Amino acid sequence: MRIYSIKKALNIPEYKITGIISETDKEINIKLEPYKRKPFICSGCGQVHKIGRHATEESIAEDLSLFEKRVYLTIVKRRFKCPVDNRTHIEEIPWLKKYGRVTRRFAEKVNRLTAITTNQEAGWFLGLDDEAVYRIDKEILEQQYAQRLIPPPAAVNISVDEVSYRKYHRYLTNVVNTDEKAIIWNDKGRRTEVLDRYYTAIGEDNCKKIESVALDGARTYIASTNHYAVNATIVYDRFHVMQKLNWAVDMVRKQELRKARKDEDNELIELMNCRQRFILLKNKANLTDKQTGYLERLCKANEPIYKAMLLKESFLELYNYDIPEEAERYLRGWIKEALASSLDMFKKIALSFLDKIQYIINWFKKKISSAISEGINNKIKRLKRMAYGYKDIEYFKLKIHQHCGLLNPRRYSH
Fold first, then answer.
1. What DSSP element (H or E) covers 188?
2. Residue 274 DSSP symbol
3. DSSP alpha helices (H): ranges in 99-237?
4. Contact 212/368 with Cβ under 8 angstroms?
5. Less crowded by CB within 10 Å, the N or C end of the chain?
6. Could you give the 3-state DSSP secondary structure of residue 96?
7. Secondary structure of residue 132 in the 3-state scheme
8. At 287, is the secondary structure helix, strand, or coil?
């Protein structure tokens, strides 16, 4: 391989190739030395010094591949005595990671690959072990986080939701800019003080500029938002309201399934088993003819499920209203009907809706939804599954920003 071709392909200014140390079919080791006139950047104070060289040493770093071969650079580094602290320091090389064994552009390639696939797959592609990929990726993400997400970006319309990151009820709170459809902040926990940290970080002026906040109805998030985002419209959005209704329907199904098993009613057991439960949760208008027939059979066979489906379908009529006052009258009527029913689960959510009725009605004034947050939550769950979990929670938070937030390379690629 010709030296000229290698030099042109490497494109490293102020350094000359002094030889090829070794070369095989799979890799090449190239020796680089700085030109004599190259200024010395002190790694201790960061300043440029024009003083005599004290000594030299060599280090090896991996660079981007050339001609289908892995490239290792044996770099001659100079040592100088710094006039600032009177200590000997090695020179700082801008294109080389300070403590790593890779060049900056190689590290950036690792980071870009981990944004579209798992660390394990990125490591396999580049010939690196998982630990090396983790160290390189985390360092770059920490730098990007410090540059772009400190202080946290403010937004006019936000959505707040939690996602489980570990069993035993370990949660992360995510704040999403619904206009950008990207996570702008996250932290461990889902208590009031967790969201308080976001509002405190963006400052009082930015809090006052928030127009709407979509929530899942959690009291902790509502309390924090009421305290800080004083001008915001809090919306208990349609997505989470329907999620609550579907939960109530499924709880009724489970109760009746237990009774059927106790009574050994095999026909009813078959109608209510887990394989069929999604038919109960779907919108009736989206059912196939076969599913509609199944639902009719089930409702005839079991009165509590029939009542649950009636309550669910009647609730859906709420979203046909356009005027908030009319919607509120209808919702209060539905709550009264649910409280009068014999279904404990529907009584429970009816009381919950009554307590948060203003936030539900706010959806008709500001039709913001946290369904975006739920979509992002699904991405986060997929990210966690692909990596078989994360031991380092701080790294997991950074990966969420990389895949679902403002650290995604696609946002800065042109």
1. strand 182-188
2. G
3. 104-114, 119-126, 130-148, 192-202, 204-209, 219-228
4. yes
5. C
6. strand
7. helix
8. coil
**At residue 279, what is the residue type?**
I
- Alpha-carbon distance of 382 to 400, in angstroms, equals 11
Residue 368 and residue 213: Cα distance in Å, rounded?
8
Among 283, 278, 281, 277, CA closest to 256: 277
- The amino acid occupying position 371 is A
Q: Tell me: the pLDDT tens digits for 117-134?
A: 999 999 999 999 999 999
Condensed to tens digits (0 to 9), the pLDDT of residues 174-219 reads 999 999 999 999 999 999 999 999 999 999 999 999 999 999 888 9
**Architecture field, domain 157-236+369-412:** 2-Layer Sandwich (3.30)
Q: How many residues does this entry show for the chain? A: 414
Interaxial angle between packed helices 357-365 and 324-340, expressed in degrees from 0 to 180 and rounded to the nearest 10: 150
Task: Please state whether the peptide bond connecting residue 94 to the residue before it is cis, i.e. omega within 30 degrees of 0.
Answer: no
38 with 65: CB under 8 angstroms? no
Contact 214, 368 (CB under 8 A): yes
Nearest alpha-carbon partner for 280 in 308, 304, 255, 257 = 308
Lowest mean pLDDT among 25-34, 224-233, 305-314, 339-348: 305-314
Residues near 171 by beta carbon (within 8 Å), at least 6 away in sequence: 162, 163, 164, 165, 188, 189, 190
The model scores a pTM over 0.70: yes
- 3-state DSSP of 53-75: EEEEEEEEEEEEEECCEEEEEEE
**Helix intervals (H) in 127-203:** 130-148, 192-202
Locate the domains of the chain by residue range: 3-96, 157-236+369-412, 238-365
Rg (CA), the chain: 30
**Rounded Cα–Cα distance for residues 142 and 122 (Å):** 19
Residue among 326, 346, 327, 325 at smallest CA distance from 336: 346
CB neighbour list of residue 297: distance below 8 Å, 6 or more residues apart = 271
CA dist list (Å): 404 to 144, 398, 411: 14, 10, 11
